[in-house]
Structures are given as structure tokens and as C-alpha cells.
Design goal:
- Helices cover 45% and strands 16% of the residues.
- It has 195 residues and is an alpha+beta fold.
- It has a four-stranded antiparallel beta sheet with strand order 1-2-4-3.
Length: 195
């Protein structure tokens, strides 16, 4: 039977905005939501719709995982430095940020709902000699307060190393601005680095 977007959203327990994104091919339902839609439509995904990326994600055990369940697959930890840099570059492009404060302090960060994934990102940064801090924070999500985790990169030397070795796809201009701010600070002595 024909339904409005609002009725359909209500029946699968998602926002109308999500349905609009699906209709406009900006995202797609995954996991339990996708299964619920298939059941409502009394259909299954034909095998012809599978592709190599889907097969790869299934093989890694990460296809359709919710944000809280996300982890970095073990194979990533075995990558050579150049490929690991590319992985982190794209990861920070999606869920990373560069903050330049009014007082010209700079902070790079990566946020995740998964504690395990945040710890893994922090660990992977160590391969480049980048020391990061993990903090827990509360965020508002769909009228609820949830816990999120943020990997923060502070300090001029860490930020310069991150910019040189990893970078952030699509955020080059802002990262260049951050480098210009922290470069003079990197030459100053910083005796609190070990704390």
C-alpha cells in the first residue's frame, strides 16, 4: 500500500529526514532497519545486488554494524605505514575535525561512539609517533544523551607530524592554516610534553 514519507518513517521507526536521504540516494538503511524494511516489503535482497565491497565488509565482520559496535579490522594493523596513513587520512575525513580557537590554539580530533575504535585510532597514531589523548564526552543524539569518545591530538609537534605524515582528505586548507599557527610554537621549548 502507498504511504507518505512520514508514515513510512514512523512504521520503520526512523526520522523523516532519514527516509528523505534514502529516497535521494544520499544514504541507505543498514542493519536492523534494512532487515525491517525488507520484511515489511516481503522481499529479500537478490544475490545479484551483492558486490565485492559488501562481500569484503561481510568477510571482515563489519557490514551493518551499529556505531557502538564498530572496530577497526585487524588487517589494518598490519598495513605498511603509507597505506595506514591513507586509511587514517580517510577516517579523519569522515569523523575527524580540526579546531582553531580564537586564541590560536589548535586541536585535531576523531570522534566515535565506539570506545574500542577510539582506542584503536589512538594506538594507530602511535605508529607515526603521534601521542593522542582519549576523552569521554556526552553528546545529544535524537533527544537522548549518549556517551561518545574523542581522540585528541594536541601539541605543535604532534599536529605537524600528523599534517606531514597523514593529512585529512578534503580538509587540506584548514590543516594548512593549523600548520601555520603551530609551526612557530614547535620551535619553542615545551617542558610539559611528558605530562
Amino acid at each position: 500500500r502507498e504511504q507518505s514519507q512520514a508514515q513510512f518513517a514512523k512504521s520503520v521507526q526512523v526520522s523523516v529526514a532519514s527516509v528523505s536521504l534514502w529516497i535521494n540516494a544520499r544514504s541507505m538503511p543498514v542493519g536492523d532497519t534494512f532487515a525491517k524494511i525488507l520484511k515489511m516489503l516481503n522481499t529479500q535482497v537478490p544475490d545479484t545486488q551483492k558486490n565485492s565491497l559488501t562481500d569484503f565488509l561481510i568477510e571482515l565482520g563489519i557490514f551493518g554494524k551499529h556505531a557502538l559496535e564498530k572496530v577497526i579490522p585487524g588487517v589494518i594493523f598490519t598495513l605498511p605505514k603509507q597505506k595506514l596513513a591513507l586509511f587514517l587520512n580517510r577516517l579523519f575525513a569522515c569523523d575527524g575535525s580540526i579546531v582553531i580557537n580564537k586564541d590560536n590554539t589548535v586541536r585535531l580530533s576523531y570522534a566515535s561512539s565506539s570506545y574500542v575504535m577510539a582506542e584503536q585510532v589512538k594506538h594507530l597514531l602511535l605508529r607515526f609517533g603521534i601521542i593522542a589523548k582519549l576523552r569521554e564526552k556526552k553528546i545529544k543524539y535524537r533527544d537522548q544523551i549518549r556517551t561518545a569518545f574523542e581522540v585528541e591530538v594536541f601539541g605543535a609537534s604532534e599536529i605537524l607530524l600528523f599534517a606531514k605524515e597523514i593529512g585529512i582528505f578534503g580538509k587540506d586548507e584548514k590543516l594548512d592554516k593549523a600548520v601555520k599557527i603551530v609551526l612557530p610554537k614547535s620551535k619553542a621549548k615545551n617542558w610539559t610534553h611528558d605530562t
